[in-house]
Design goal:
The complex is a heterodimer of chains A (about 120) and B (about 110).
Chain A lengths: L4 E3 L2 E4 L5 E6 L6 E7 L6 E7 L2 E5 L7 E4 L6 E5 L8 E8 L9 E2 L3 E5 L1
Parallel strand pairs in A: 2-11
Antiparallel strand pairs in A: 1-3, 3-8, 4-5, 4-9, 5-6, 7-8, 9-10, 9-11
Chain B lengths: L2 E3 L4 E5 L4 E3 L2 E3 L5 E7 L6 E5 L10 E5 L4 E6 L8 E8 L5 E3 L3 E6 L1
Parallel strand pairs in B: 2-11
Antiparallel strand pairs in B: 1-4, 3-8, 5-6, 5-9, 7-8, 9-10, 9-11
The chains are: A mainly beta (about 120), B mainly beta (about 110).
């Protein structure tokens, strides 16, 4: 399967703990996006990368969230001092670098539950 | 600011009936619009883009800049169309914003 892969699929953690998720995009895709989705809502934009450069970060994202894409390939999303409100599905997507029309290819997501 | 609204959270239609899923957007520039679909137990995937002007699985969508709408239509709904549908907009930079989604249920 050469699609976008995310690891882990599920993560249960206690409030206050740090968690890190990984996303491996489609290999020839330069752009990588992170979204958060809660029940009954559409994907909420968190941040995106063009190669290794983080070009935009949502103002909704607190300082507890950080994302990296050190070599322009895989990306990690870290949440520090997790809160119950962080419980959600975290989606990663990648796309080719062909302007604003390039479609996003999504992974299966990482479901985070904070207890 | 970019915004996408989908007024219906749930939509039920009978098999063979026409279906229209509404999408309205707010954006001051020239938007690029998309419809994404998520079938049960599958990942979110592209259904169609307005730039392509194509029909995918019998669905079409027309961009109406005057009404700032991008409604998704299909003349005859099929049971396999039951899914979650999201309208999305690419405006400023490369950020893609999604609407809240509409759950379509096709009744046999």
């Amino acid at each position: 399967d050469t699609g976008v892969s995310q690891d882990p699929r599920h993560k249960i953690t206690k409030r206050g703990q740090n968690v890190t998720f990984r996303c491996d995009p489609i290999s020839e895709h330069n752009r990588l996006y992170w979204y958060r989705q809660t029940l009954g809502q559409g994907p909420e934009f968190l941040t995106y990368f063009q190669n290794e450069a983080q070009l935009e970060k949502s103002r909704l994202l607190s300082d507890r969230f950080s994302a990296e894409r050190p070599k322009g390939s895989f990306s990690t999303l870290e949440i520090q001092r997790t809160e119950q409100g962080d419980s959600a599905m975290y989606l990663c997507a990648s796309s080719e670098d062909r302007g604003r029309n390039s479609p996003l290819h999504f992974g299966n997501g990482t479901r985070l539950t904070v207890t | 600011a970019q915004r996408v609204t989908q007024p219906e959270k749930l939509l039920s239609v009978f098999k063979g009936a026409p279906v229209e899923l509404k999408c309205n957007y707010s954006y001051s520039g020239s938007p690029e619009l998309f419809w994404y679909v998520q079938y049960s137990r599958q990942r979110l995937q592209l259904l169609l883009r307005h730039i392509s002007r194509e029909s995918i699985k019998g669905f079409t969508a027309d961009l109406n800049k005057g009404e700032t709408s991008f409604h998704l239509k299909k003349p005859f709904a099929q049971e396999e169309d039951s899914a979650m549908y999201y309208c999305a907009l690419s405006g400023d930079g490369l950020k893609v914003i999604f609407g809240p989604g509409t759950s379509l249920s096709v009744i046999p």
